[in-house]
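LAB NOTEBOOK - FOLDING QUEUE
OPERATOR: T.R.
BATCH SIZE: 2
PURPOSE: Compare the predicted structure-token outputs for two unrelated chains run back to back under identical settings.
PRIORITY: normal
REVIEWER: second-year student, initials M.K.

ITEM 1
FIELD SEQUENCE / FIELD STRUCTURE:
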Amino acid sequence: SFEGIGAILTGGGSREVLVENPLDEYPAVKAGVRAGDVILSVDGKPNKGVPLDKVVKRIKGPENTKVVLLMKRRGVIKPFNIEVVRAKIRIQNVTSKLIKDHEHIAYIKLTGFVRVQGKPEEDSDRKMKEAYSKLEKEASDKKIKLKVSMILFSSKESSNKKYKKIKVLTEPPE
């Protein structure tokens, strides 16, 4: 874990600093940061030519402190500021929820494939199965049956939506 805004960034140096994936339930998403946004400056300091690790160091900071990001977004003419209050960030490779107002639909997001030697309880495949079981129980407790017609797994190459591999299953994991 670390203290920051909860977003995976790419680029830096000679490339723009791109928000690859703002992490659900963390400050970046709550403040309105989106995947594909470009961070032009951090607290008024431009990122042009700055290595990514130094940009990340500027963004990280003590919990409950503010950082101001100057953003560029496709479809928005002028750059704009987003103020984000930092928090303790714990990276979770698997997150899940029942879709509000459609609780027969389970949403499970896999952000990385992980195998931790000596800690099989942290492996992504196990976390996926646990997430599905948890959602199935949550739905059952509400007297709702999950309707599984398809499970789609994808591994994103970058924010430009090119996918490396896609696997479609017609049955839920056992």
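ITEM 2
FIELD SEQUENCE / FIELD STRUCTURE:
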Amino acid sequence: APKPATPSAVVAKPASPAKPTSPAKAKTISPKATEDLQNAAEMGDHDALMKALAEGADVDAPDAKTFAPMHWAAKCGRPEDLSALLKAGAKVDVKNKAGVTPLIYAASEGWDDCVPVLLEAGADRALTTAKGRTALQAAEEKVGKVDAEEKPRFVKVVEQLKGGAAPTAKPMSP
């Protein structure tokens, strides 16, 4: 019986060298891939975004407008890009120079498909812009200004931000 235990111990050893590879890979940031990621995020090119992430882009690097890729994805209503960036380690509450977070952008644009993605990833609803506006305040302000066609999206975002927003997180708590 002791002999089968020896091969399994040998099999377990190759798994540990894989750990140092991950941090080393994360440290190797490609400036070209980072620029490609910023452009892909702004333009909404999901394939180019995925390619840049695979090539070692800095997932949180701001562009000349101080927008991180998460800002573009949230502002432009791209939940798939948000999910990919979050999976790659992007900061969910990254702020631009005006203090705007991805959640505030998604809320102010009425993206009812992006707000839940951000909330489920742990976005902080209480964060404010440099002018003191929260995501909820930004969405509530827009409800009264948008046309009848867009209004239901903003109403839904307000509801999401008031608490019904993270259905997967809520039932687990009690």
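REVIEWER COMMENT (ITEM 2): The radius of gyration is 20 Å.
FOLLOW-UP: none requested
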